[in-house]
Design goal:
By secondary structure, the chain is α/β, with parallel strands linked by helices. The chain is about 40% helix and about 15% strand. The strands form 2 sheets. A 6-stranded mixed beta sheet has the order 1-2-10-7-8-9, sandwiched between helices. The structure holds pyridoxal-5'-phosphate. This is D-cysteine desulfhydrase/L-cysteate sulfo-lyase.
Length: about 325
């Protein structure tokens, strides 16, 4: 058993990230809406993966690794931030990036995150959406090891218990900012995918003894499947922190009604949400995660789902670089 503060971490993110009101968006939906700006974590455009990488890079350095290897979709924000962290710490970076069925194509392969990955010096292994990413990663790791390299593998989205610890810090920041700004938050909403952000955030709230409910809007699977994924990771994260995993009971909530036809495939509601935030708050969301997360929050506000929760905080997890890959749908 280890305690949270003894787990090695490198500092990469600009933090605390701001927690700001969204007055013009609030007036549209009859709620006090706030945003936690984790799109401003600072690493090559920022986003939620920067916090996870603080623990994952520390582990790679402790293992004397010379190469970071990770996997994701072709416009993965996680891949971009991993490439940037590798550059910052003098490590090589291998990105195994899958094509994503149903996404726009003209800029998808070259612009947005793909452009930045190349600028950051990562080497890219492009896979079709039929190739097996896990098997490819395993073979690449073996090949690098056989060539005398010391690769460190980071799972999809940086979502393992170690990576999730990054979001324990975000939870602590939110708790502090609520106090400093003398505001009330009744509900937190975020986009949830590989689950580490929601799991880490809940672990941090549990650690702080704060019971604000957290709603994950799914970007790739049903609510039930997502609850299972987040719950398992949350229990493992609490265990890693030396806390009782049963504290997770009843805390994981996810809604799978807003991702449309699949991961990365645009919905009309996402496009509306991205436009509304841009044109009312000067806030740029992304098409794959935060746009869909915000579309869920907006729809649930309109339907009165939060009628007993006037003060809602949206966690902006970054990804605005992705809009350049999706310009044809905007
Ligand atoms: C911008 C953005 N928001 C949200 C998420 C989802 O976070 P998680 O995978 O930890 O659930 C991601 C993951 O890649 C992301 O890039």
């Amino acid at each position: 058993m280890s305690t949270f503060n003894s787990i090695p971490r490198v500092i990469i993110s600009h933090s605390p990230t701001p927690l700001e009101p969204m007055p013009r968006l609030s007036s549209l939906f009859n709620h006090n809406l706030y945003v936690k700006r984790d799109d401003c974590t600072g690493l090559a455009g920022g986003g939620n993966k920067t916090r996870k990488l603080e623990y994952l890079v520390a582990a790679a350095l402790a293992n004397k690794a010379d190469t970071l290897v990770t996997v994701g979709g072709m416009q993965s924000n996680h891949a971009r931030q991993t490439a940037a962290a590798a550059a910052k710490f003098g490590l090589n970076c291998k990105l195994i990036l899958e094509d994503v069925h149903g996404t726009p194509k003209s800029d998808f392969y070259h612009n947005g995150n793909m452009l930045l990955d190349k600028l950051l010096g990562a080497s890219i292994h492009r896979l079709s959406d039929e190739q097996n990413c896990t098997e490819y990663a395993h073979n690449l790791m073996t090949k690098l090891q056989n060539n005398g390299k010391k690769p460190y593998f980071i799972p999809m989205g940086g979502s393992n218990p170690l990576g999730s610890l990054g979001y324990v810090h975000c939870a602590q920041e939110i708790v502090n900012q609520i106090k400093e700004q003398a505001i009330t938050i009744d509900q937190i909403v975020l986009a949830t995918g590989s689950a580490g952000t929601q799991a880490g955030l809940l672990a941090g709230l549990i650690k702080a003894g704060v019971d604000i409910p957290v709603l994950g809007i799914c970007v790739s699977r049903s609510g039930n499947e997502q609850v299972k994924l987040v719950s398992e990771l949350l229990a493992q994260t609490l265990t890693l922190m030396g806390l009782d995993p049963y504290l997770a009971e009843g805390r994981v909530v996810a809604n799978g009604h807003y991702y449309g036809e699949g991961y990365g495939i645009a919905t009309e509601e996402m496009i509306e949400a991205v436009r509304l935030c841009a044109q009312h708050e000067g806030l740029i969301l992304d098409p794959v995660y935060t746009g869909k997360g915000m579309s869920g929050m907006i729809d649930l506000c309109r339907k009165g789902y939060f009628s007993d929760k006037p003060n809602i905080l949206f966690l902006h997890t970054g990804g605005s670089q992705g809009v350049y890959a999706y310009q044809e749908i905007f």
